[in-house]
Every structure is written in structure tokens, then in C-alpha cells.
Amino acid sequence: TFHHQGVTAATLAPDVQPFAIAPDGIIEGLIHRALPCLAVQWHPERPSPSHDADHALLRRFLGGAWWLNGN
User: Fold this and answer.
1) Are 60 and 49 in contact (CB under 8 A)?
2) Which tens digit of pLDDT belongs to each residue from 12-48?
3) Which stretches within 1-69 are classed as H helix?
4) Beta partners for 21?
């Protein structure tokens, strides 16, 4: 993790389930057990070898939101 803050198993709300956990125990992905709610700690704006793939995934996930088109 880069922020040195976050949710751990000890502080996780009972209605959510983790699906991505960093080696230091910080939960970086979780999903609500009953509601259509998913959260991911991710920085697609950060330059990386997968920059283009990150942006394509973000566009796909957000369904072509108007503020992403052409950016």
C-alpha cells in the first residue's frame, strides 16, 4: 500500500467481504455481501507499464462515462 492507512480485517464492517488484501494486511478490494457495491484501492492515473490497460479497464468499468471520453 502507498497510503499507510486503510481497512484491516479487524476494522472491516460485517456487511462487506474482502477480495484483495495487500501483504501488510490492508484490504485493497471489498464487496458488499447484499448490495451492488464494490470498492477497490487503485491508482489508474499513476504512470506504470500497464497505463494503457488501466485506462481501458477504467473506461470499460465505467461504461464510457462522459468525463472519460477522449481523455
Assistant:
1) no
2) 999 999 988 888 888 888 999 999 888 888 776 677 7
3) 51-62
4) 27
Q: Tell me if the pTM is above 0.70.
A: no
Cell of 67: 468525463
Return the number of other C-beta atoms located less than 10 Å from residue 41's C-beta.
Answer: 16
Edge-first strand order for the sheet with 16-21 is 16-21, 27-32, 38-40
15, amino acid identity: D
Report how many helices (DSSP H) and strands (DSSP E) the chain contains, helices first: 1, 3
Q: Which amino acid is at 63?
A: G
pLDDT of residue 64: 58
* Separation CA 60–CA 35 (nearest Å): 21
Instruction: Give Cα 49 to chain centroid, integer Å.
Output: 18
Report the 10 Å Cβ neighbour count for 68: 13
CB 58 within 8 A of CB 44: yes
